[in-house]
Amino acid sequence: MSTQDLSKERVCPICLHHWNDPTVLDNCNHIFCFDCIIEWTRLKPVCPLCKCSLELLKHRLWVNDAVLPNWETEGQIENIMELRSEYELERLKEKSARQPEHERQAVIHLVKHMLGELYTLRNMSITTFASDTIFKNAIDAINKELDEYKKLLIAFNDGASRSELFKSPAFRRVVYKENLSPSSICQPLFNIALNADYIKNNRDIVMKHITPFVIREICALTRKDAIDIHVYMENIMDYFTTKLKRQQIVSFLSRRGIENPHQFLNNLLHFASSGQTLKVYDQNSEYRVRRSNYVGDFFPEDDDVLVLNSNVDVEVLGQSNSNRRSQSNHQSPVSMEIPNNNASPASNSNFAIGLDPEDNDDVEIIQVSSANNQNNQRSRSLNNYFDPNSMDVSDSTSVASPCIYTLD
């Protein structure tokens, strides 16, 4: 090839100027300016000319004037997904900097409830004839978990970032125990219109994207290593591509120790549609209490349920918004009472709720009230349990609304 022909070849197809830091791509032979191709991949990680998908690029090349560079040319390799993540994190820096106070209060609310359980167990161990070993093991398990939440609260009070807080196994358990629902602080730049056709056409890409999230949630919820992650992923991908119905994947997850499978699937869909890495997703997330984590209470089992956005939690295909609002507005309220401290130990283990006895086993009602002597005692226990010099534990959750936990 002549020098003149080489000169024509050294023009960037995007800016139409001579290469500035020529950059080669992993899956095709096209060459661009580094800044030009970076701007392009922020929109879509494909080659602008041949549309092949891209994962890596190489720049700062050792260019030979007599030969056009290619992927074999020495240079610096960059991961496109990581570059996009850095760009999003920079964009989120200001808006995600505020402290996650709602999430911190959810941790405190859970700790108070567990201290109440601890108090009840200790009373029962004194007044019943059951084996001391049973109570000792139960009390030790609660104390161990409380210690995890103590460390989490220290991290909250030390001003740790959202991504650092939300990735911890302790917080992942709080999400499910306190029935929290994620939403995005800022609209994701690279969100995905997730549907069965897209997943079928991009199965490997979707699986690679969601696998870290699935591993993290499973390890946190089961307290075990996800050694059979491929089994989870195959079943989840079959559900995503409609080979499995909702109830089938729910049964699969329940058998493997996921106590909140509906909430797990909703959270997974929210992450998958964001198009973000875990670090960016966590930094861009905030959590609020969801009214119910069991969408099957609202919709028939065979309906397809899709997570849409932070304002509309679920959509049943073929159902109008007005119908969804109508169903939501006609949910029956649940009446409940919190037993006082003078009740017998047996009554402490059963809350009085407005449901049939068989339903009573499936629902746990918790309420914190500042006027209740028992909860004042729990607040004092909380202050004794945590070192007041190392953190400030707020009792502002004492006016929280009742939370309903549906055990699927």
From TrEMBL:
SUPFAM superfamilies for this protein: RING/U-box (SSF57850)
Record region (Disordered): 318-356, 369-398
GO molecular function terms attached to this record: zinc ion binding
Top-level lineage group: Eukaryota
InterPro entries registered for this protein in UniProt: Znf_C3HC4_RING-type, Znf_RING, Znf_RING/FYVE/PHD, Znf_RING_CS
Keyword Zinc annotated: yes
Alphabetic keyword roster: Metal-binding, Zinc, Zinc-finger
RING-type domain boundaries: 12-51
Start-end of Low complexity biased regions: 318-332, 339-350, 369-384
Protein name: RING-type domain-containing protein
Naturally occurring in which organism (per UniProt): Meloidogyne enterolobii
